[in-house]
Amino acid sequence: MAVAPELFEILRCPVCIRESDDDGTLELVNNVWLVCQTCDRKYPIRDDIPVMLVDEGTRWQSTPVESLPETPPEPAT
Q1: Terminus of the chain with fewer CB atoms < 10 Å: N or C?
Q2: Contact 43/50 with Cβ under 8 angstroms?
Q3: Could you give the CA distance from residue 68 to residue 64 in angstroms, rounded to a whole number?
Q4: pLDDT in tens, 45-55
Q5: CA 12 centroid distance within chain
Q6: Secondary structure of 8-28 in the HEC alphabet?
Q7: E strands along 1-77, which residues?
């Protein structure tokens, strides 16, 4: 796993933590994506660092998990 297990245990979707009663649980996909189990936002992991920016998660929200790139591209500018 690219993300340290201790870090993965405490990471949560920033949107769900703020806006819902859900705890924002994330699932690790292909060792390079964290997928929110509630809102389906997908946060990339770049250089072993989870990018937990709402804009990044929302950018991939409508992309099916099976269509996510194997290597997350650089952020949109």
Answers
A1: C
A2: yes
A3: 7
A4: 998 899 999 99
A5: 9
A6: HHHCCCHHHHHHCCCCCCEEE
A7: 26-29, 33-36, 42-46, 49-50
Helix (H, G, I), strand (E, B) or coil at 34: strand
pLDDT digits (tens, 9 = 90+) for 2-33: 677 888 888 999 999 887 667 889 999 999 99
Distance of CA 29 to the CA centre of its chain: 9
C-alpha span between 51 and 64 (Å, rounded)? 19
Structure tokens at 49: 């660092």
Instruction: From 10, 42, 38, select the one nearest 28 (Cα to Cα).
Output: 42
Strand partners, 27: 35
* Domain extent listing, the chain: 5-64
The mean pLDDT value for 41-46 works out to 95
CATH number of 5-64: 2.20.25
